[in-house]
Amino acid sequence: MLNCPIDGLILECDNNSLKCAHGHSYDKAKQGYINLLTVQNKRSKSPGDSKEMVAARQSFLASNIYKPISEKINQVALSHTETLATNILDAGCGEGYYLTQLEQAAKKEELETNLLGLDISKFAIQAAAKKSKNIQWLVASNRQIPIADQSLDLILCIFGFPVFSEFKQKLTTNGKILLVESAENHLIELRELIYPEIKPYQQNNYQEALDLGLTWGKSDTLSYQVELNKEQLAELLIMTPHIHRANREKLEQVKKLDKLALTINVNFRLLQIK
């Protein structure tokens, strides 16, 4: 179900490579992933998360601080598994935490799923490929998803950057998009420490998605409290955009804290084709 990112033709297996009818060839890396990111979709030599960000996210997520988020994703995703073989894409999968958790949950419930993880960061996909050999990992962009049109039953976009025109094109007739996003009070205690003021919260209605004919389905919110130690707090800062946006002096003050109680507040929203 993979397409050539250059001409859109179907990619066929040829030993350890994928090739299209025009002869474009893509080798499978020794870690098991495929790099289908075209030059025009690169904004730098190594786009996406750096090695440092990937390592911080791996360590932070391994502590299961975000486990309730993962469990909610699994619940929503598997409740929409309406056929024996469901094609699910994690668009912006990072180092693969959420998708491998979904794989385990589907296996436990004896549900057959075909899982694909896509990220623009090669470092993230290299880390993800070590977690599971049963998931198809791709270095690619949400702006050009190298997957056949109308082949995906569910697209996950978890704290990511949705491209609705591309998402809709890849969805089946009954396909859905699950958006997992920061809610009003997500990490509010940290944000109050590192920013001079907190901007009023506004949930994005994504008018571009509605203009494409997508409609809002069920939505839900998850909220709980955690306490981070010094190491976890440092990892959280590295893996989020806050480290680039916040006041430097205030960041240094936060790094000196031994612990910090935080609110985790996340929205889960479904979009579907009318």
TrEMBL record:
Zn(2+) binds at residues 20, 24. It comes from Catenovulum maritimum. Gene3D superfamilies: Vaccinia Virus protein VP39 (3.40.50.150). InterPro entries: Methyltransf_25, Methyltransf_Superfamily, RlmA_N, rRNA_m1G-MeTrfase_A_prd, SAM-dependent_MTases_sf. Keywords: Metal-binding, S-adenosyl-L-methionine, Zinc. The keyword S-adenosyl-L-methionine applies. It comes from the Bacteria. The keyword Metal-binding applies. S-adenosyl-L-methionine binds at residues 66, 95-96, 186. GO terms for molecular function: metal ion binding; methyltransferase activity. Residues 3-45 form the 23S rRNA (guanine(745)-N(1))-methyltransferase N-terminal domain. Residues 88-166 form the Methyltransferase domain. This is Uncharacterized protein. Pfam families: Methyltransf_25 (PF13649), Zn_ribbon_RlmA (PF21302).
